[in-house]
């Protein structure tokens, strides 16, 4: 079983989906730590309820991004982590940190990448009049939300939707595709080579197999 660290900043519903899939034996892996950059978030309670060590690595006043990431790295290194899963972790990570975990770090982003990197993706999809929206799981590279996509799920945009409606519809899909991708990683089927995501050694088309 692989050793997984999940990094969060909030509610942790994607964390929960991954914990449940490990518990069910769906993912051949164990979440060995949940790390939050914020104290008092519900995701930490979810970790405790699942019996997983939960720790807060809070940024200190005036601390550089590199210094913060070095402290994060120190925690993860101690835990011998095989995979870092970003699940609503709302900090940008430095190039050095990202490169250290190249091919071993995943993120989920609430848009159909390459559309809408960054924040407020649901409102931006609405403002653009998009008829579909969704979420993407990708390997993390130094370019923000720019790493190669592994799997996407699409949702329709209905007339009268607001950002909360869309967020809820997208979340439901996130909870399907993120555990699936982590399962594939734990099976050794996913690699990143030359900035491309490979599934069983073959380059993945965007919007793969969900
Ligand atoms: C998810 O929708 C995830 O895609 C998004 O934050 C939410 C976290 O929800 N991530 C980002 O926006 C990353 N920039 P959760 O805490 O309930 O898993």
UniProtKB/TrEMBL annotation:
Reported EC number(s) for this entry are 2.1.2.2
Tell me the residue numbers annotated for binding (6R)-10-formyltetrahydrofolate.
65, 90-93, 107
What residue ranges are annotated as transmembrane?
A: none
Active site, UniProt feature: 109
Q: Please name the Gene3D superfamilies in this protein's record.
A: Formyl transferase, N-terminal domain
Q: Which GO terms describe its cellular component?
A: cytosol
Q: Carries keyword Transferase?
A: yes
Q: Which reaction does it catalyse?
A: N(1)-(5-phospho-beta-D-ribosyl)glycinamide + (6R)-10-formyltetrahydrofolate = N(2)-formyl-N(1)-(5-phospho-beta-D-ribosyl)glycinamide + (6S)-5,6,7,8-tetrahydrofolate + H(+)
Which keywords describe this protein according to UniProt? Purine biosynthesis, Transferase
Functional note: Catalyzes the transfer of a formyl group from 10-formyltetrahydrofolate to 5-phospho-ribosyl-glycinamide (GAR), producing 5-phospho-ribosyl-N-formylglycinamide (FGAR) and tetrahydrofolate.
Concerning NCBIfam families, the annotation shows: PurN (TIGR00639)
Task: Tell me the protein family, please.
Answer: Belongs to the GART family.
Q: What is this protein called?
A: Phosphoribosylglycinamide formyltransferase
**Organism encoding this protein:** Ferrimonas balearica (strain DSM 9799 / CCM 4581 / KCTC 23876 / PAT)
């Amino acid at each position: 079983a692989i050793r997984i660290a999940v990094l969060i900043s909030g509610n942790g519903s994607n964390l929960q989906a991954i914990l449940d899939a490990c518990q069910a034996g769906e993912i051949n892996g164990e979440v060995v730590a949940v790390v939050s950059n914020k104290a008092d978030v519900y995701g930490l309670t979810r970790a405790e309820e699942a019996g997983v060590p939960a720790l807060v690595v809070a940024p200190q006043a005036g601390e550089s991004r590199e210094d913060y990431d070095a402290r994060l790295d120190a925690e993860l290194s101690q835990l011998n982590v095989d995979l870092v899963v970003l699940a609503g972790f709302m900090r940008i990570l430095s190039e050095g940190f990202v490169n250290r975990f190249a091919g071993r770090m995943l993120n989920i982003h609430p848009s159909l990448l390459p559309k809408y990197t960054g924040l407020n993706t649901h409102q931006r999809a609405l403002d653009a009049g998009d008829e579909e929206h969704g979420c993407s799981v990708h390997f993390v590279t130094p370019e923000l939300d720019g790493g190669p996509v592994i799997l996407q799920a699409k949702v329709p945009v209905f007339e009268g939707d607001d950002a909360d409606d869309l967020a809820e519809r997208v979340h439901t899909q996130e909870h399907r595709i993120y555990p699936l991708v982590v399962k594939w990683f734990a099976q050794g089927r996913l690699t990143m080579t030359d900035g491309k995501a490979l599934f069983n050694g073959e380059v993945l088309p965007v919007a793969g197999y969900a």
